[in-house]
Amino acid sequence: MPSSIPLFDPQAANAPRIIQLFQDLELLGEGDPPANSLFVLGHVPDLTPGAASLWRDQLLIVDPPADVTTRFRLAGDVAVLFTGAVIDVDLPLVQTIAGGVAHIRIGAHFLDVYVQPAGTVVYLPATGVVLGGGLGSDVAPPRLAPGSDGSDELETLRLIARLLKTRHFQLYIPRLGTLAVEKAAVMERLAVDVAYLHRLRRVVPGLVQRGEALETIEWLAESFLPPERRSPAAVAVHEANLQALLANR
C-alpha cells in the first residue's frame, strides 16, 4: 500500500498529504473533496561542461496547485502539465497539441499523454497509473470544454475505457476526488459520467425547443446529478455546463 506523509500540520482538518505511490512518483492531495497533483521525479546525467554534479534533477508536476512555487522548493528542470484548463503557475508548461499523443520520459518513468479537445489523459505504462482529469471523479460531473455539447467528453471517456480494458492498470487518479484501484469501480464512475452527459445532450435541447422557462429547465436538470455529486463544487460545474449549453442554442 502507498505510504502517506503529512504536510504542514497533520492535525489540521483536510491537511494536505503526500502519498508515495511508487519510486519517484508522489501524489499531493488537499482539500475536501481532494484536489490531486502528481509529482514525477527523475535524475539524468548532467552533460553540461564543467558541471559539479554528475546528475541533474527533473520534475514534472501534473495539475499543480496554483501556489506550487511558494510552497515547494523546486530545483533542477521543472515543468508542469495540466489535464484541464491551464493556470499560470510561473513554471514552464509542457506544450501539447489537441488530437495527438505525446510521449514523455522523466527519469525512469514514461508518460503517454493523450491530448483531447475535452482535456488531457495521462497514462504511465510501467506503473499502470491513469490520470483522467475532470472525468471519472466520484464527487463531480464532467465539465464541458468551451464550445462542446458533451460529445468531446464522451469521446475522451471512451479513450479512458479503452486504456482500462487494454492496458496494465493499478491506479486511477481524477483531478478532483478519491483515488480508485479497482477497474470495475472506475468503469462505474465513467458510466455515471456518460449517463450525465447523455441527459444534458438529449433533454436540455428538447426543453429549449418546447419553450420551457429557464427556471423549469434548471429545476429539471437538477435531477441529472446523482446524490454523491451534489457538493458545492459539483453543483457549480453542473450549473456552468447548463449555462454553456443554453448559450449555444
Compute the CA-based radius of gyration. Answer: 20 Å
Helix content: 25-40%
Estimate nothing, just give the exact number of structural domains.
1
Number of strands: 11
Sequence of strands across the biggest β-sheet: 1-2-3-4-5-6
User: What is the CATH architecture annotation?
Assistant: 4-Layer Sandwich
**Subunit organisation of the chains:** single chain
Give an overview in words:
The chain is of the alpha+beta class and 249 residues long. It has a single domain (3-247), classed as Metallo-beta-lactamase, Chain A. It is built from five helices and eleven strands, in the order βββββαβββββαβααα. The protein has helices spanning 68-71, 151-166, 183-209, 214-221, 232-247; strands at 3-6, 17-22, 25-30, 35-45, 55-62, 77-81, 101-106, 109-116, 119-124, 129-133, 171-174. The strands form two sheets. A six-stranded mixed sheet has the order 1-2-3-4-5-6, with no helix packed on it. β9 (119-124) and β10 (129-133) form a beta hairpin. α2 packs antiparallel against α3 and α3 (183-209) crosses α5 (232-247). It starts with a strand and ends with a helix.
